[in-house]
Specification:
alpha/beta; 7-stranded mixed sheet
Length: 362
Amino acid sequence: MMGKWLAAVLVAGALTGCSPVNPYYDPNQPHHTKQGFRNLYSHATPGKVDFWRWQFDRWMRGLPHPPEESLTPVVADVAWLKEPSSEVRVTWIGHSTLLVQLGQFNLLTDPIFSERASPVSFAGPKRHQPPGVALEDLPRIDAVVISHNHYDHLDLASVRALAKQRGGPPVFMVPLGVDVWFRKNVPEAVDLRPLDWWGQTIVGDAVFTLLPVQHWSARTPFDRSATLWGAWAVRTREPAFNFLFGGDFGYSRDLATIGERAGPFDLAALPIGGYAPRWFMRVHHMNPTEAVQVHREVRAKASVGIHWGTFELTDEPLDQPPHELARAMRYAEVPPEEFFVMRHGETRILRDGRWLVRAPGD
């Protein structure tokens, strides 16, 4: 209970908190403000009263309910993950953290390995599933992408450990403003690349592009939207692969633009959890039905559901998003192999255009 109320206090303060001066302010960019950043399309944002109404309602109803099914993780073969390979492999570590192996290029998304998604270790949303791969068991990571600075996507202990990995730190790609936080808190991150929407950078032969999505940022009650947020496109030549990492966002017209300008994608990692109650979450968090629509709008050949099953952040049970996703796919006539979910620690391998579950001995 204490964890839920700590998260509540942080979010409630962020709903009304003021922002510092934006060092990246460009008056020619419509998403820039003097205090920070904003979304491209207007929308009604729930206020502080709405937030406390939600908190009171979930307390009265005892939400979220515990999952009805056991979310049993897979025991990852960490030795195999470290072996050189020319294949494309994707391993779900949990929440929005994926290990994406594009040949011998190792990419990590929104790494969080801590027990809690919180500014403190003794309270805040607690992990319900251990990381599918322990941080110390990872292969050497070449690059890390951060979608935004919320505690369930930017974890201090995790990025500090990665910056101190054997063989030198990875390259950290971050939205504008998040670099200021990194320089203060993770000085070991010597190759730090802040990008604006549609900005690009190259690591090896991988091209990284920060993409506009509808969301927000904050780490305190006083810095709402002071730093930018976004999704990431990662394109490699060998193997030829185009990957979309969604991170966390609400449905907006940005997604069709991404499909037109950056698609098609061989794989899109799309958030499917964190959506209830809809009257409060709609603006900044997709539900599974919207995720299926986005799968098509970004022109993804396949999609994997992320941002579910690890931390209790909203009102739906931890095991509900995959069921809602399956229902939405049947309604939209999307084949099961086009949009899948994974167990914590599970690896999928792309072979002959199909995403196969890695079996022992592969």
